[in-house]
Specification:
about 180 residues, GNAT_dom, transferase, Aminopeptidase, alpha+beta, seven-stranded mixed beta sheet
């Protein structure tokens, strides 16, 4: 396995496929519009970048990051102790189910911290579903601390019923 950094749209289709695999199955199963998802990922790639975990040139994981100013859900009014303009946002960490538990998430976060331009960003923020205990535990071990939470309404796979996910924002100072 190797990890590369890219903001090239040539990976858009494969990242979109991975996102759909990760978030349309299991306990976080939800309806995902492929058109909206492509726009979302493309926006991140245009304004930020992806770290991609490759196995035999196939994407098995991705970390997507961009300026926090692009996260329209971030509760700016309740978080006063960080400069949003100087904060990088880990928008997504996705790992194919067959590769989970192998340290890829930790390696992503280590490489993310090493590759982040500290002259542009002094802080990092990540958002996670409060029921995703493995991810929440990893982020805390990596030095991220909770700073805010939101509720996000999602569509069930049938595209009709909704459910609510409680999301936690975690923050880390970059040095």
């Amino acid at each position: 396995m190797k990890i590369i950094q890219s903001n090239d749209a040539i990976y858009l289709q494969e990242i979109t496929k991975l996102y759909t695999e990760v978030f349309s199955s299991g306990i976080s199963q939800q309806h995902i519009s492929s058109h909206e998802l492509s726009l979302y990922i493309n926006t991140i790639l245009k304004n930020g970048y992806a770290l991609l975990a490759l196995d035999n040139n196939h994407i098995i994981g991705a970390l997507l990051c961009c300026p926090l100013t692009l996260d329209e859900l971030f509760p700016k009014q309740t978080v006063q102790n960080i400069s949003i303009e100087k904060c990088v946002y880990v928008a997504e960490i996705m790992i194919s189910s067959a590769y989970r538990g192998q340290g890829i998430g930790k390696e992503f976060l280590n490489q993310f911290e090493q590759s982040t331009d500290k002259s542009l960003y002094t802080d990092a923020v990540i958002r996670v579903w409060d029921e995703n205990i493995p991810a929440l535990s990893l982020y805390r071990k990596m030095g991220f601390e909770p700073i805010a939470s939101i509720q996000q309404t999602k569509l069930r796979p049938d595209g009709k019923e909704t459910f609510v996910m409680n999301k936690i924002y975690l923050h880390k100072k970059l040095y």
